[in-house]
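Q: Hi! First time doing this. I have a protein sequence and I read that you can turn it into a structure. Is that right? Here it is:
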Amino acid sequence: MGTWEEKRRKYLENLEDKFRVKENARVARRFINYIKNQSLSIHTLYRYAESLVMLDNFVKKSFDKITREDLEDFLAHL
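A: Yes, that's right. Below is the predicted 3D structure, encoded as structure tokens:
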């Protein structure tokens, strides 16, 4: 089955497949690639990526079109 670390690495490798809005997938990939250079653990990278996927799936629109109300609704949903 693999270790939790292997599962998280696979999740990050296939990150783009998890997004409804493809532009959000590109933004998320750029962000994850950037923070990889910040010496963060694989678990932290995974949690950031997972949060972006959850936001994308909740709002179903481009990140640059998200409003304050969208974010408040998303946080209330959590």
